[in-house]
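Priority: low. Protein: CxC2-like cysteine cluster KDZ transposase-associated domain-containing protein. Input follows.
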Amino acid sequence: QGASVIMSELKPYFDDILSAILARECPPDPDAVCPCGATANTWCTECWESPLYCASCIVQQHRHMPLHWVEQWNGRFFERKGLAALGLVMGLRHNGGICAQAPSNRATAKLTVVHTNGIHSVTIAYCHCARDIKVTDQLLLAGLFPGTFKQPASAFTFAVLKDYHIHALQSKKTAYDYFEALRRLTDNVLPATVKDRYREFLRIARVWAYLKAVKRSGQFHNIDKLLPPNRIAGSLAVRCPGCPEDGFNMAPNWRATPLDKRHIHTAWSNGDGNHGLQRKGGKTDDPDDIELWGGKGYFVETKKYEEFLKTVPDSEEKSTCVNLKAVNMQNKAKFRNCVVTGVVAVTCGRHAMFHPCAMVDMQKGEK
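Result:
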């Protein structure tokens, strides 16, 4: 059916849909009574069909869901609040409670937590039972990635890092747009008043993607000792499972294959370039940036590649027509101010998967 048919069937229900939306945004009578007997004036906007409770009861119910948003009746309207504003404390390693060994002057600490539903200001209660358990370890075990490992004042949930990673791969969404959306989820009227943790988010999201590659590749458990010795040591890349590889996915006697069938053991590789993947130099470039993958992924090792480029002589690409200068001018305009003029990669010819350590940046036009 065409879109017009579907829309014509849906249009008569618009009033019903809007009524349901308004009903969800307008909770019951704010003068209701909580099961504990107190005035019920607070409800959770994220729990399934949440009724009204008093602030104390809703805090108790959310000991294990501390990053939900709630709304509380202030006499004129339901005001959005974080649970920390109602007294919720995120206790670590004590089932949500406060450690009994915590000193009175360091029982709690303030922390900015970035989650999939926005940016929260929370109160954290660290565990002080075991002196050798670092604060950062407690955060990580609770699913919170600290923004810094010296004196963390902010953290990112594992859920938000995973969510951004999927969005970046599937929809090509930038980290800036994703983080700005989180600020609007926090306060869509005045998003500029929400705490800005974009710089920290960029750094942690990059580390998260690398650590996930280490985890999935099996390198954290030294998987190389189980793989053929001809593989790149410490490789984090996903190899093509269909391409023939001696000692991995081929029969031990594959060399005895008849001549007329040896083509089934042939590995095909294609090389191609993409000059749309350019990068211009800017003020944000860091000459001392740390390379995480170090030639263990799809790109070659940077230092070795730079040494190789020094051995390649320079050559200008010129048009064969002495009167036609458009080609030369077009190349100069296309690659102006570019520190990377494109990418060249080698892929599996049969299954279109990138080969490990077989991709390089270009810095000399289309050369």
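DSSP finds nine helices and 15 strands in the chain. The chain has three domains: 20-86, 89-217, 226-238+267-310+324-362.
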